[in-house]
Every structure is written in structure tokens, then in C-alpha cells.
Amino acid sequence: MTAKTLDGKTVAEAVKAVVAAAVPQLGRTPGLATVLVGDDSASHTYVRGKRRDAESVGIRSIHHELPATTSQDEVIALVDMLNADDEIDGILVQLPLPDGLHSESVVERIDPAKDVDGLHPVNLGRLLLGRPGLRPCTPNGVIRILEHYRIPIAGARVVVVGRSFLVGRPLALMLSEKGVDATVSIAHSRSGELAPLTTTADILVAAAGVPTLITAAHVRPGATVVDVGVNRTESGLVGDVDFDEVAEVAGAITPVPGGVGPMTRAMLLSNTIDAARARTGRL
Ligand code: GUN
């Protein structure tokens, strides 16, 4: 292997240390509410991790677990209650919601000032407009890990494979913002042959949700490869990148697990502090 491994665990610890130092400055204990509906086991694991992270930096974790049979109105009523609770600075509704529930309406119901996932249309709209707001955690985490390892972003050619509203699209917007200044292309499942485009990338981000989609043939020698994929397969958790093969070609690469995942979790805490700071002025 020739590529440098970009260690998300180490960088996430650095972000968490900054958050932990910011908590006492708030003058009150910030609160992060998590809402988990149904019994998807991966979602339970994720939320457990997020709650543990929150407590570890001094953020109070308030957890609501609802059965899969919960109605849309009941979920909305819970969100309304959390919106009205001044002790809660951030609200995270774990997605996906069970069949029959309408995720978009639930996310839209969250007070944008408490939308620590950065997925409310108001916050995504602010991102599009280049205005300050809460940014989605995974794209935020991708940029933070690149910055930590001093991988040049300004002027870089970035190819993002994947156009989800959770990762691909907001990441492309964030990387092309004024002051960040990457030149960004988005590829997706209908793009056809990927290699002619991906081999032009200085930074290649794989966020398509397809195991081993990205092979050595997709990567320009020396490029940085960021693997956002979280695919549960029979052989365990794998990313979108064939790590062993790509690590022989790339200059730097994030592993799965231990790359972007810990960064996403750390940026949730960072967003919670940002939300708490902004709200403290108004309470
Ligand atoms: N499910 C998978 N990723 C996420 C995320 O970033 N936020 C929420 N709320 N649910 C998710």
C-alpha cells in the first residue's frame, strides 16, 4: 500500500475536544434530542453511538424511542414538543423512518435553528445561497478531514460520485462555495462510464452506496479518495471503494470503518454547540 490513510477517528477526537472545551463557555448544559422510530437495528446502533458521543463531551442526551406503528401525527407532535423545549438545542430524527411515515414532512417540522442534521429545507436553502446556517454533518466531516490533513481544496478538481440530499448534493455545494473554491463535478447512477471523469479528480468522493464501485482504474495516481459508503454486506461493513486496490494508486484514502463515519458523528456535536450558541443569545 502506498496511500496515506486519513484517520477519521483521530480527527474526530480533535473535533470533540474543541466541542468539549466550548461546552462550559455556554453557561448552561446544551441538549441534543434523538428520535428513533421503529426497530431498524442499524439505526439503533447509530443513535446509541450519537448519544454516547454527546454525553462524552458534556452535551445532555434526551432520547425518544417510538414503535414502528407510530402515526405521522404522533411523530409531528413529538417534534413540536422538542421545538418548544428551551433546554433542547438540537433535534435529530434518525432516518430512514419506517414505511408509512413521511420523512420530509417530519424533517420540515423541526425548528431550523435546532436542525443539527442540516437537512431542513431552510438550512439546505441557506447553503445554496451561501448564507450561514447549520450544514449537513457528513459533508461537513468530509471537508474537515481534508482540511486536517492539509489536502488542498481550493483549485482542486473534485468528483463526487452520488447525488443524495444527505451527502452528494450538499457536499458539491459546500466544496464549490466562495472561499472553499473547488471545481466540482457530480456523477451518479445514470452517468454511464465513470472512469473517464473520476480519473480527472484530484479528490474523488465516493458516496453512491454501492460496494466496491470505485476500483484502481477509477483513480488518478496520487489522488485523494474519500469513501463515504456504509454498506452492510455478508462480509461486514464495506465502503464504496475497493480499499486494497485503490490504496496502491491513491495518494491518500479514508478507510471504512474509521474514516468518514466518526467525522459525521463529531460534526453532529459541533453543530449542536453552534445551535446552542446561536440560541443562547435569544433565550
Ligand atoms: N441516517 C443515515 N445517516 C443519517 C444522518 O446523517 N442523519 C439522520 N438523521 N439519519 C441518518
Describe this entry's structure for a reader:
By secondary structure, this protein is α/β, with parallel strands linked by helices. The model has no long low-confidence stretch (mean pLDDT 97). It has helices spanning 8-22, 41-56, 72-84, 103-109, 121-129, 137-148, 168-176, 195-198, 243-246, 260-280; strands at 4-5, 31-37, 60-66, 90-93, 157-161, 183-187, 203-206, 224-227, 231-233, 236-238, 252-253. The chain folds into two domains: 28-114, Rossmann fold; 136-260, NAD(P)-binding Rossmann-like Domain (Rossmann fold, 3-Layer(aba) Sandwich). The longest helix is centred in the last third of the chain and has 21 residues, at 260-280. The radius of gyration is 19 Å and the shape is globular. Helix content is 39%, strand content 16%. Strands 1-11-8-7-5-6 form a six-stranded parallel beta sheet, covered by helices on one side.
